[in-house]
Amino acid sequence: MLDLKFLRENREVVIKGAEAKGIDINLDPIIEADDRRKALIQEGDNLKSRRNQVSAQVGKLKKEGKDASSVIAEMESVKTRIQEIDSEMREVEKNLTALLLTIPNIPHTSVPIGKTPADNKEIFRWGEIIKPDFPMKPHWDLTDKFEIVDFSRGSKVTGAGFPFYVGKGALLERALINFFLDHAGQRGYKEIAPPIIVNEDSARGTGQIPDKEDLMYVVERDQFYMIPTAEVSVTNFHRDENLNESDLPVKYAAYTPCFRREAGSYGKDVRGLNRLHQFDKVELVKFVHPLKSYDELELLREDAERVLQLLGLPYHTLLMCTGDMGFTQAKKYDLEVWAPGQQKWLEVSSCSNFESFQARRMNIKFRPDNGGKPEFVHTLNGSGLALPRVVAALIEHYQTPEGKIIIPKVLQQYTKFEVIG
RNA sequence: GGAGAGCUGGCUGAGUGGUCGAAAGCGGCGGUCUUGAAAACCGUUAUAGCCUCCGGGCUAUCGGGGGUUCGAAUCCCUCGCUCUCCGCCA
Predict the structure, then answer these.
(1) Nucleic strand B under 7 Å from the C-beta of A65
(2) CATH architecture under which domain A117-420 falls
(3) Distance A364 CA to B44 C1' (A)
(4) Is the CB of A373 under 7 A from strand B?
């Protein structure tokens, strides 16, 4: 969420930002609620001050053995009024927070204005899109042929979108996880293995609730949420904490399964590994100094891109336009890998700077080295990478005319085999 | 799952209804001393909100949330967490 003071003093900026994202907002109810809140605070604090004075007086009188009943009687109405104010305050603040949570983060000035994915800017392209002299198959043909991903048994055991990885498919999955984690480790990310179920506070912290509740599987009985990305657990790792400025940037890499209900997205992209309800992902998360967050975003993007380069998979990098970037981000890049068997780009990573939007919600600050007041950190995260689509692109890209799949060199030390088929 | 004990400032740890935002110690910061350092001594050391004639004033915060009371770290309820014992278990 945005800072209330900032919002009050920069109403135009906030409105324009939301507009660019295609979100309609109305700041008036927020200002009104905040005005009411301030009025209540003032009245309440004055009465409480009075109450504290009188209470001290009562204490003194009692100590001296004198009668205090007249003073106590006088406090009756004050007490009642304080209770009224406190109870209204609860309502007003609850309402104010709810309203504030409907205001999206403001896009960075470098973000192109736009409405649809067509307005995203391709800023980088890597690798050559191969034009083979044989018909390339989509990955689901190959995973079926080699029985390395079992979709139908997944449907039987759980449901659509919960495949089994079998034999070399499972080994390939594990190899990629290890490769991604090792690479992140070399780039200075500390590895952590987080919980994959979180409580309500954590889900709220990263913004999954209230607005994206439908995205998640909910463990209703215990009021827990299955994480849709490791971002949720890992960013909440430091919730309600003060970091030291000298420790910044704090960088983590985490492998987790991710769970997404994908409600409403049926019909498109459902073949094979393109869209699943459960998938593996290595996530990169950073807590950084506010002045360095945009430099850190570029580094994060490069860290995500590098593994695609090492795997030899052609990809391109998109700078997301204002209309396609989401509620909480200030700037976001998407990496899309080329899947030749399907002749299309598949999103495998999304690298975002949230500035202080999440940190404010989660109360994550850093204490400046010079001893100044704690300030909110900036948070960033990016996939490094999401597995199923990488597997899809890899299988399609490295298929041979004979219908085999070659494992790229860099992965062979992890898979311990060189070819499937 | 059952029984019990706890949760206090960066840390250790006092405090069971009346100036307690909270003793003391440790740590941190500043200073004196010293060629420098250590030791010793002195001082300082939370966060947030509201108001401000920008000097400051007020309020809240002792795991979270409610309540009792003129007044709550202290009493009651509730939730969470930690520890001990029992049961169960990868």
Answers:
(1) no
(2) 2-Layer Sandwich (3.30)
(3) 27
(4) yes
- Residues of chain A within CATH 1.10.287.40 domain(s) are 28-100
Whether the beta carbon of A83 falls within 7 A of nucleic chain B: the reply is yes
Which nucleotide lies nearest residue A71, CA to C1'? B70
| Residue A389 known to be catalytic | yes
CATH 3.30.930.10 residue spans of chain A: 117-420
Of A314, A297, A258, which Cα lies nearest the Cα of A124?
A314
Helix/strand/coil for A348: strand
Q: What is the pLDDT confidence band of residue A263, given thresholds at 50, 70 and 90?
A: confident
User: Which superfamily does A28-100 belong to?
Assistant: Serine-tRNA synthetase, tRNA binding domain (1.10.287.40)
Q: Report residue A385: phi and psi, to 5°.
A: -135, -175
Nearest residue for B19, CA–C1'? A56
3 state SS for A198-223: EEHHHHHHCCCCCCCHHHCCEEHHHC
- Asked whether residue A47, judged by its CB, lies under 7 Å from any atom of the DNA or RNA strand B, the reply is no
pLDDT (tens digit, 9 = 90+) per residue, A3-31?
999 999 999 999 999 999 999 999 999 99
Query: Which residue in the list A173, A202, A204, A260 is annotated as catalytic?
Result: A260
- For residue A220, name the pLDDT band (cuts at 50, 70, 90): confident
Convert the pLDDT of each residue in A140-166 to its tens digit.
Answer: 999 999 999 999 999 999 999 999 999
Stretch (H or E) spanning A193:
none
